[in-house]
Amino acid sequence: MQFRVAKAGDSGGIITLLDSIFREYGDRVCLDGSEADLVSLPAHYEPGELMVLENENGIVGTVALKPCEDQPHVCWLKRMYLAPELRGVGEGQRFIDWARERTRSLGRSRIECWSDVRFERAHAFYRKMGFNDTGERRRMTDAHEPYEEFFFSLDID
Asked: Is the pTM of this model over 0.85?
């Protein structure tokens, strides 16, 4: 398996992965809303901010980190997804380790993220990795159907 920087040609594989994951929850990708960033990767992610995990079958995982423009100590964890067969085998840990190192390399000390309330397994994983869950929720309307998200944060040294 190869963990590498995403490139423009990866959009289709990333969209396919996310769509398959969303369908686990009775949903689908919304390319004109919440997943619009995936249509034009170079316009939304600087080199090294969006990573993919790829095997012989294609893209099986993604993770992104975006420096927050209005909070100079924060990076946003985004697009953290793994194919079902790779959950619970250490790849998520690899993604969080990468996010910590990338955040440090950008001179920042905190990772924040929002996660769909339906992704309970991901929430347990975030807590296991040391993320704080304040219980804060927000309602989103940028997909085919409204949904809600929980807020998580991790202070890194």
From this structure: yes
